[in-house]
Amino acid sequence: MAKLPLSARIVGRVEESPTIFTLRLRLADERARAAYRFAPGQFNMVYLYGVGEVPISIVSDPSGPELLDHTIRAVGRVTQGLARLQPGEHIGLRGPFGRGWPLREAEGHDILVVTGGLGCAPVVAVINYILMRRERFGRLTIIQGVKHAEEMIWRERYAYWNTLPDTRVLLAADHGGALWPFHVGLVTEVFDQAPITPANTLVMMCGPEGMMHAGIQNLTARGIAEERIYLSMERSMHCAVGHCGHCQYGARFVCRDGPVFAYPRVKELFRVKGY
Amino acid sequence: MGPSTTDPATDLAHGAAPLHLPAPRLQELMDELRRAGYACVGPTLRDGAIVYQRLPSAADLPQGISDDQAPGSYRICHTGSARRFAWANGPQALKPLLFAPRETLWRASPQPDASLAFDAAIPDGEALAVIGVRSCDLAALALQDRHFLGGSYPDPYYASRREKLFIVAVHCSHPAPTCFCASTGDGPRATSGFDIALAELDGGFIAEAGAPRGEQILAALGLAPASAGQLAQGEAQLHHAAAVQHRALPGRNLQAALFANLEHPRWSDVAQRCLSCGNCTSVCPTCFCHSEAEIPQLDGAHSEHVREWDSCFTQSHSFIHGLTIRPDTRTRYRQWLTHKLGTWHEQYGRSGCVGCGRCISWCPVGIDITEEAAAICGPGD
Known about the structure:
heterodimer, A: about 280 residues, alpha/beta, Elongation Factor Tu (Ef-tu), domain 3, Rossmann fold, 2 domains, seven-stranded mixed beta sheet, 15 strands, about 30% strand, B: alpha+beta, four-stranded antiparallel beta sheet, 16 strands, about 35% helix
């Protein structure tokens, strides 16, 4: 613990799905608000009074750091409490922490964004970032897989992205349904439809590790170098500054050295049960 | 950081000749430390173990007391010796004095305008002089310093205590059968990180300063130089203390060997014996894991954010929503050992084990880290 949390006012709340919501936050202190900067892929420790803190990635654009959007799934004590808060209420914010996506290296390249399950929030920040600076990047391909079609949030957003020039959205659900016109099956099965130029593509992935692993196998088989694949990892985090030890992944502290890693940095233990 | 972290090699190089502190004058050393503003902490007998706590006087040191240690066993014995430091180590190291087992980090309180106010609870602790610090614990202290103070977010709680710490080391003359500091290179001689180092002889101590403030304290005592005979006795003791150690790790850097053996059958074997109780991590002087928790006050006026020691042997340690990364003892023991003897090298430039042997003695079932490491990595050289 090195930074104290800052009081942040909830200025907006969007119900994304029955269990997923987005809080738009504004730091109460003017000076802190003016000084706050972050990079897409970084996270804040979000504090609910009397309950505790959780690491949540920032999904809004870094060009507007006065308003910080956090998309949260209500799964535990803290997040279920956060889900009940309304605009006007305050929470604590400590951050930003960690290393975000390699956006400078990504400039001039085709970008392939792969997300699975509900892991889409960290990469939505990157998608929006690219779309707001479209001329700096090549083709953008977004691949999103979910288990059940009804878990798919932001469907309109994905549909809209698919209409943009040089942008392709490929969706897959393990279990489709009547209103699912997209692929039914594993997310890796739609990789075939993605226009990939291995030497000019940078991959950004977020989601269940099994899905990311399958994605890596698929992409490296297509000739994409491992160092061009970036992953956002998730582990238990308490302190966010590399001290508490919960997020250790071999020699790495996910909170400090990640959460975004180039795949070779985590390859040795990736998918080794127990790390 | 205080002078106690300066390089002792350079400090000792210019240092005066070793001095002799007669045993009856040990109290004067404590008095001098008090005059310099330090409260004295030292080894004392409590609840059948030697633990570091407030030391009212030199008479409270564990004179004539030693420790019998074996895997899964720690017993105090009375030897009748006039010596006060003729034992190896107790369950504690310096760790609880700096990295508090439990402490409040900050307090949150709701304000009338609905905002939250946050106040840091940085301790304003008193300056402590710890007497009787072992070389293994100094090595561990250097590692904890690196962990808590070395990165981009130096820990202010740890730092506030560390800055005020004065260290009187005592070279280890009576290692326990569980000790293996000679094999890790961390003892039995205290070589760095102290303000004063003592070697206990019959009837007195050889005293050396490791830092200018230690030199000042010793100068105030007006001690005579140690004789050649006394120095020779001190050296012989240290030689003996290293020679009697029969436990050893199979190498200084086991990272490659451990990670090449992640599916070794021994992990399942040790998991059958390990109770996953976390005693080893509690007594380990380098283990740094802690959890943070929220303690809302009953009056609703504020809530305290506390941290307390945690262990990678608990189920909650690796829990993320819907998933426990390490659900069983095999993966937890493997995490502990591959970190302690493996990835510490990558994180902090050396092994996380200083050879104190506490995890062996205080393990309820006597699991021996040196034996497990050898079974998994091979016997080494």
